[in-house]
Amino acid sequence: MSRENIKHLQEIPNIGKAIAKELNLIGIHLPGQLIGNDPYKMYSKLCNATNQQQDKCVLDVFISAVRYMEGGPAKKWWEFTKERKNKLGQD
């Protein structure tokens, strides 16, 4: 499926109902809104919106969704864990 034809968040690899709902909570309702967004800032915004620290795997899913919508290949969300850990200095 061409990314331009994606109309719903759940059509993006790794995005299910729960993540789509969380994206809606931070103002992202359409797949195209992910393009140019910083997944790390999105994660922080979600933590602030829910008043709780979200699981880091949510950040990995956000990274995967943004990268995909920006033209990257479809990958499993856990393939972005290393990128997150490198960026945030985690083991």
Characterization of this structure:
It is a single chain. The protein is 47% helix and 0% strand. It is mainly alpha-helical and 91 residues long. The chain has one domain: Orthogonal Bundle (DNA polymerase, domain 1). Helix 2 crosses helix 3. The longest helix has 14 residues, at 56-69.
Architecture blueprint of SSEs:
Layout: H1 17-25, H2 39-50, H3 56-69, H4 81-88
Helix pairs in contact: 2-3
Unreliable residue stretches = none
Radius of gyration: 12 Å
Major sheet size, sense and barrel closure: none
- Tally the structural domains: 1
The number of distinct helices, counting runs of at least 4 residues, comes to 4
Helix content: 40-55%
Write down the overall geometry.
globular
Total beta-strand segments:
0
CATH fold-level label: DNA polymerase, domain 1
Please outline what is shown here.
This protein is mainly alpha-helical and 91 residues long. It contains 4 helices and no strands. Helix content is 47%, strand content 0%.
Features:
91 residues; mainly alpha; DNA polymerase, domain 1; 4 helices; globular
